[in-house]
Amino acid sequence: MRLIVHPLTLELREPFALAVGSRTTTPAVCLEVHHEGLVGYGEAALPPYLGWTQADVCQALHRVKWHEPIHLLNLDGLLSSAAAAIGPLPPALAALDMALHDLFGKYLGQPLYALWGLDLSRIPPTSFTVGLMSPAAAREKARQVVEYPVLKLKLGGDNDRALVTAVREVTDRPLTVDANQGWQDRSAALDFIGWLAEQHVLFVEQPFSAARVDDHAWLTERSPLPIIADEAVRTMADVVRATGVYHGVNIKLAKCGGLRAAHAMLTVARALGLKTLLGCMTETSCAIAAATHLAPLADWADLDGAALIANDPFVGAQLVDGRMLPPPSPGIGARLVKPLAG
Amino acid sequence: MRLIVHPLTLELREPFALAVGSRTTTPAVCLEVHHEGLVGYGEAALPPYLGWTQADVCQALHRVKWHEPIHLLNLDGLLSSAAAAIGPLPPALAALDMALHDLFGKYLGQPLYALWGLDLSRIPPTSFTVGLMSPAAAREKARQVVEYPVLKLKLGGDNDRALVTAVREVTDRPLTVDANQGWQDRSAALDFIGWLAEQHVLFVEQPFSAARVDDHAWLTERSPLPIIADEAVRTMADVVRATGVYHGVNIKLAKCGGLRAAHAMLTVARALGLKTLLGCMTETSCAIAAATHLAPLADWADLDGAALIANDPFVGAQLVDGRMLPPPSPGIGARLVKPLAG
User: Fold this and answer.
1) In sequence order, what are the residues at sequence separation of 6 or more whose Cβ sits closer than 8 angstroms to the Cβ of residue B171?
2) Can you give the residue ranges of the Mandelate racemase/muconate lactonizing enzyme C-terminal domain (chains A, B) (predicted)?
3) Catalytic-residue membership of B154
4) Which of the residues of A are catalytic?
5) Given B69, B92, B111, which residue is the final one in a domain?
6) ipTM over 0.90
7) In angstroms, rounded to a whole number, what is the distance separating the alpha carbons of residues B26 and A333?
8) Are B125 and B155 found together in one domain?
9) Catalytic option among B106, B154, B255, B275
10) For the segment B47-91, what is each residue's pLDDT rounded down to a tens digit?
C-alpha cells in the first residue's frame, strides 16, 4: 500500500467574503492510496480558520505505516492504527478514511452506499450556500442558482433581515440559515427566528458561540425552527452532548475524520432523536461524492462545496432533481479529470 | 425472491430447568430466501416465554411482498417495507434480516464482518451458560466445558451463593452472572454483588424486574461490578434509556429484529459509554454464526446457543481459543448439514 499526497490550492469561482477582506483560494491535500493495482482517492479540506496547514497533513499522512500483509477489508484495524499515527488532525484522517473506503468499494466492485445497504430514494434535496454579501448581491445569486431546491443564507452580519427579505423577493424556495456563531443576544435571536419561521426557513445553524451551551439549550426549548449545531459538533461525544441542547447536528467528513466516523455519528444522532444535516467544506468533487453516499441517513443535505471551485480535479456526484446523488461507480466513484501533481 | 419457511423443533441436549418443571425442546422457524440462484438463511428463535408461535412467524413472513425489480443491496429499502408487513414481531424480522444479509454477502462474495470493515482480532472470549441447577450439578458442568474461557451462571434461585461457591471450587475462569430479574431486595443485591466481585465475576445481568428502573439505577450507581440490561433492552429506544440506569446492554438478534438493528444498537451503546454484551437465544448455528459477525463490536460475547441443541441443521461459527469466530465463507456462512423440510 503506497500513499501519495498532493497539496492543492483550490481556486474559488467567486471571492469568499470574510469579516475582514475576502479570499479567492482555499488549501487542500488530495491523497492517492495505491494497493494491488487499485487507486483510492481522499481529501483533506483545510479551511484556514481551523489552523491546520498542508504541511501538517502531509507529515501526518507520511507517518502512517501498516504491517504487511494488509487486509484491505479490515477498515477498523487499518483506521485505528492510522489514527494513532496521525493524531488529532481530523482532515488528515478524513483523507485517509476516504481513500481506504474508495479502495474498499473498488475492490468489491460496488459503490459505498450499496455496500452500506442504504436506500438512495431517501436522499434529501441539497442546498446551495449564498455567502455573506449585500442584499442586492444575494438576491442576484438566488436568481442564478435555479437548479438548487433550497438556499442556505449565511447570516450573523448587520443586515440579516434585509438579506432574507431580498432573497424572498425573488424565490419561494425553502431557505436555511447559518448564523456561524454570529448572534449575541438570545432574546433577539428568538424574536428573529420567530420572523424567520414565517419566511419558510427550514432550520437555523449555530446561532451563538459554540461555548454558550446554556443559551443554545434555552433557544432550542423555545424556537419554532430546529436549531442545528455545527461548530459545536466535531466528535461522537459532541453528538451525544448535543441532546437537549440542539434539535440536530451538522455532520461533515472533514470535521469528524471521515466516512466511518460520520456513518456512526449519523446513526447515533438519529437514535438520540436529533435531526441530521450532512454538510461539507469548500472541497473537491472527491470529498463531496464521498459524502453523498451517506446522504440517505440525513434529514437535510448541504453538499454544494465542489460547485464553488473553479479548478476541481474530479467529477463525482450529480445534482439530479435537486438531490446530490452518489456516482454509480465502485467506491466513492469520483473520477480524476485533471492531473493532481504539478 | 422466494421465501420458504420451516417450523423446527430444536431438541435440547439437556433439559432446560424452569421455575416449574423443565423443557426438552424449543421452537424455531428457519427461513430460506431464494434470489437469482442464491439462497440466504435466517432464523426466528421462539423461546416460549415471549409468547410468539411458529404460526405467528410463518404468517408474518408470508405477508412480505416486494415490488419487482428487487435490488438486493438496498437492505434499508427491503427491510423497511418488510417491517411494515411483519409488524411488531422481532424474531420474524430477525429471520428475514439474517436471510437478506446472507444473500447480500453471498452476492458480494464476502463474509459480513468483512463487508462491515470489522476487525476480527477484537472479538472477545465467549461464555458458556450453566443453567439453573443444583450446586453439585453446576460444579460438574463447569468441569466438563473446558473449551469455554468464561462461564455464565444463571442465578435468581434460592442457592445463588452455593452455586457460585461450587463452581469456584473447580475453576478459576472468570464467571458472569445472570439473575434474570430474579432478585427482589436491592440492598441484599448490592451486598451479594460485593461478594461476587471477590469471586472474579465480570458482570451481573438484569438483577431485578425490568420495570424497576429506579432500583437498577440505584444499584448501578453503587455496584462494584457492571450491571447489564437484558430483559430491559429490546429496541434502540431502550438502549438510549439504559444510560444512567445500567452500565451496559445485552444485544440479541432475536430481541431487536436482526443484524441491521443490532449493528446500530451496538454503535449507539458504545457512543453512549455503555458496555456491550452480544447474547443469543437457544438457537441454531445459523443465528449464532450471524451474531459472530458483529462480535468485534462487543465487549463480551455469550454465543453458546447452538451448543445446547442436539439436532442443529447448520454448522457455522467455530470456537477457536475461546472465541466464537464467524465462518470465513460469504454472507453469514452457515452451512446446511441436514434438510430443513420434513
Assistant:
1) B142, B143, B151
2) 135-226
3) yes
4) 154, 252
5) B111
6) yes
7) 48
8) yes
9) B154
10) 988 899 999 999 999 999 998 899 999 999 999 999 999 999 999
